[in-house]
Write a structure and sequence with these properties.
By secondary structure, the chain is mostly beta strands. The chain is built from 1 helix and 15 strands; from the N terminus they run H-E-E-E-E-E-E-E-E-E-E-E-E-E-E-E. The chain is globular and about 70 Å long. The chain starts with a helix and ends with a strand.
Length: 300
């Protein structure tokens, strides 16, 4: 009986310590599972240029341009293995010929959201959402036979617009670079309604918009690589979607930028943008830009 009492007394004093140790172990495991590594960057710029030139006929011309862009990247890695890599990018620009119109030269925003499962050695499963459209109204300008300026509205917020929901495999390399191959991609597009144009495979038609749906294969490439002690940056963003080998069933949006940083806030950029979208034209669009300006970057 005495031995039994001693055993109960021993357990009585030891049990709280055992419970505290168990709780501490559980908390440590939970904290490990909830460990998070967050990295983000914010980039913004505002540039302007004034151009004056004389053509072969001796006519003087001047123009003024404004361009602003912003970019936000957010990367999160959890102790459980899940991670996400999000990118939001926007730009807006105007061109003005002196004593003439202000014409919108750039207007777009992109939102690319991607979630990755617990990574393997090189490849992991991914779930992604992509959204793209414009902020302001777009117009087509022309002149009447009497010389009057005509303005026809051709686009507005989310007309045109793209929404993609995809599942696939993600290959990560160079720390901040990845190639996402989505075998199952659902694409929903909104386009301004044109009564003179007939579109096939229309999902919904409203008074002002046409909504189409497609299912196919897509690939996204994101490269963000710095060289030479971060003085040179290679920033590449490319998207390709297709569901048949045909000029009318493939689209591509590829932008490539090389940046040289110097004097802390000064940058020289070589920016190339290629677009092929048969919803508007089977002829590709191409833009090459050289830019020198002051840029602000915030990183963590």
């Amino acid at each position: 009986m005495q031995l039994l009492r001693i055993s109960f007394a021993f357990l009585f004093f030891l049990l709280p310590d055992l419970l505290v140790a168990q709780i501490q172990d559980s908390v440590a495991v939970d904290k490990k599972m909830e460990e998070r590594k967050v990295r983000y960057s914010i980039l913004g710029s505002l540039s302007a240029s004034y151009i004056t030139y004389k053509n072969w006929d001796g006519e003087d011309h001047t123009s003024l341009t404004f361009l602003t862009n912003a970019e936000f990247r957010h990367r999160l890695s959890k102790g459980s293995g899940w991670s996400h890599e999000h990118l939001v990018k926007a730009e807006l620009g105007y061109l003005n010929y002196t004593d003439s119109l202000w014409i919108k030269s750039n207007d777009q925003f992109k939102c690319a959201l991607q979630w990755n499962e617990k990574p393997g050695k090189y490849i992991t499963h991914s779930y992604s959402v992509f959204l793209q459209s414009q902020f302001l109204k777009s117009y087509r300008y022309d002149y009447s036979d009497e010389g009057r300026l005509l303005k026809e509205k051709k686009g507005w917020f989310f007309a045109p617009g793209i929404l993609e929901i995809a599942y696939g495999l993600n290959w990560k390399f160079w720390d901040q670079c990845r190639i996402n191959t989505a075998f199952a991609t659902c694409r929903i597009r909104t386009l301004p309604k044109d009564d003179d144009e007939e579109r096939q495979e229309v999902f919904i038609t409203t008074t002002k918009k046409v909504i189409t749906t497609e299912y196919g294969f897509s690939t996204q490439v994101y490269i963000y690589k710095e060289f030479y002690d971060k003085h040179i940056l290679w920033d590449h963003q490319g998207r390709i979607f297709f569901n048949a080998i045909s000029k009318n069933n493939i689209s591509a949006d590829i932008s490539n930028r090389f940046t040289i940083r110097f004097l802390k806030y000064m940058q020289f950029r070589i920016d190339t943008h290629f677009i092929y979208d048969p919803a508007f034209s089977t002829k590709p669009a191409f833009r090459q830009e050289l830019l020198l300006g002051v840029f602000y970057e915030l990183r963590k």
